[in-house]
Design brief:
Elements: E1 13-17, E2 21-25, E3 30-36, E4 39-45, E5 52-56, E6 61-65, E7 70-75, E8 78-82, E9 87-89, E10 92-94, E11 101-104, E12 109-112, E13 117-118, E14 138-144, E15 147-149, E16 162-168, H1 177-222, H2 232-235
Antiparallel strand pairs: 1-2, 3-4, 5-6, 7-8, 9-10, 11-12, 13-15, 14-16
Amino acid sequence: VHPNVSQGCQGGCATCSDYNGCLSCKPRLFFVLERIGMKQIGVCLSSCPSGYYGTRYPDINKCAKCKADCDTCFTRNFCTKCKSGFYLYSGKCLEKCPDGLEANNHTMECTSIVHCETSEWSPWSPCMKKGKTCGFKRGNEVRVREIVQHPSARGNPCPATTESRKCTVQRKRCQKEGKGKKNREEKRKKSNKDESKETRQESKGRAARRQNREQRENNNKTQPKKRKAPNKEQDLAPVDTAH
């Protein structure tokens, strides 16, 4: 290795070599060796690449390689992400998760097993048969509950969310909805018809009275006035001839 003076160095190098690249870095940059074929070249980076972790020293900041099963790490013994086929647990990469934990293939981590949880049962529904609550003696009543926590892959599965049981009721007849509706409709039509009939009769009565009144008035206008008949008794009264 023949280190040169830092003149002409590029890429954040403080000192460099034509054969080995960077030999030291400028402040706050990390020194890392990159393999190119059979040769290693020194480079200076602002952060360490994947598979490396950074360490800072007074004289140099260096990037060191993670363990073989780590994709990224915080230190050599603490992984933050594992390579394919391994699951992360407490900073370590494992092929199989410990007892009581399960492998999450989405996050590639060992996570706690989650069991199913449900709500309390609802009250029993009214006793019914074929969707009706009347017209029978024996039927069924139902109650339900909801899932509040779905299980993980190895968790206990959810139980049934619906229950049904036989029930007995005092038999009663069902009111025919169509017939009752028809009767109400007929009563309404009859009421409207009676009201219309009364209205027509009142209108006819007022028209007849108005016509009679007009007829009498016309008759009074066309007939001549009768002369007053003489009082026969007054004409036949005896004449006083005493004088």
